[in-house]
Amino acid sequence: MSIVYFAHSYRERDAAVVDFFARLIRSEGLSLSLDPPSDAVNSAKLQRHLNASDGMIAVLSRRADGTSPHILYEINLAVKTGTPLLVFVEDTIPTSALSARLAQQRFSSRWYLREVREHRHVLKAFKTFMHEFDPPKFRPSAAKRACVLVGLENLPSEMAGGLREWIETDADYDCLTLPHNVDPYASYELLRNANVAVALQGPYPTYADGLLAGIAIPTITLTERPHATQGWPPPEYRPRPIPPDQTLQTVLHGEFELFEEDFLDLPDQQAVDRYASALVDLQGVYDERTRSYVQEIVMGDKYQSSGQAIQGPNAHVHHVKFQQTWNAFSNDNESSDLPALAAELERLRQHLRGLASTREEDAAVAEVGAAATAADEGDGPKVMSHLAKLGTWALGAATAIGTALAAAAIKSATGL
């Protein structure tokens, strides 16, 4: 199972589109890298997550002022490191926004559901390329985690000593020093086995700065000079200034907190367990039986989805998504009245009860029953939210017993 870094907008306007692409990506057996919600970010954290992924998929949507500089920066990180990259680009964004050399697919924010065949085709091609591109990284070092230091000559000796002590004692990394006049060949192994770098920016870029960027070591860059006014990159990814009223150690503490932030300490540990099951327990298998079991997670600072449910400030996206699915189903099926659907779903539920022999199949029976109840209550979107959790087992049974309307509804909800 390949792990994909998913770059996307967190705006309310884009939530339904983003959720659609997340579901489509998961349907191809690609696992979205779990990204914990955060109030802040730095370049080192993004680079660490990208380094731990097999590829990157970005959804680049239109804004009044162009496109998101944050997503463009993430795309640049992937280009810099040669990471397999696919960008879904909204069709109103100018052609010049991205290099023609990048793999990209246009989508419409208004009729993306009708473009699903094209989007699925390009995802299949991207998945094949990733599988042939690069094996997991093999790091022979058995040493303790390490932080490489660059630019200590730009600090007073007392401050440099305090920096080293903080990293070794408080942050608990071994310190590796990269001298100013570095021998590149002698330093490759040192850099390759470093987990993170701290670079003190001098008046001019050095060869060591270029090495860190080229090898894509997550780097926390600090500066004593305030930023000049510039538009690129976004401020979060520029060298972090050291305010006069803060110590170097205080600034580093905040940067390392961001860099090390991950999902193992999330409040919802059940979500983490499901993610671990997808990565480990299922051993990469993604078929009809596991599809209803795997509950992939997409998380961000504005929304998170667990399975089919979206929680947080944009919880209404759940309703919007399945309202669209229900509308599309109703338009394509003239006989899609809810009482008739409820009757067929109840018939299907009773039939499946006699067939179920596993916990996954029992869960599918329960979802069909919940969908029948929602249909009785006149809630079409809720019907779709329950049917979306089914797989080919329920669809095959619905077809076999002649409940054509229920089968069509399952197809519409699941995309099968």
CATH fold field value of the largest domain: Rossmann fold
Strand order of the largest sheet: 2-1-3-4-5
Q: What is the element string, with H for helices and E for strands?
A: EHEHEHEEHEHEHEHEEHHHEEEHHHHHH
**Termini distance?**
20 Å
For the record, the count of structural domains works out to 3
Counting DSSP E segments of at least 2 residues, the number of strands comes to: 13
Note the beta-strand portion: 5-15%
Largest sheet: 5 strands, parallel
Alpha carbon gyration radius: 25 Å
**Oligomeric state as shown:** single chain
Task: Label the CATH architecture of the largest domain.
Answer: 3-Layer(aba) Sandwich
Could you say which overall geometry the principal axes of the C-alpha atoms support? elongated
Tally of helical runs = 16
Which structural class do the helices and strands define? alpha/beta
CATH class categorisation of the largest domain: Alpha Beta
Give the proportion of residues in helices: 40-55%
Unreliable parts: 282-319
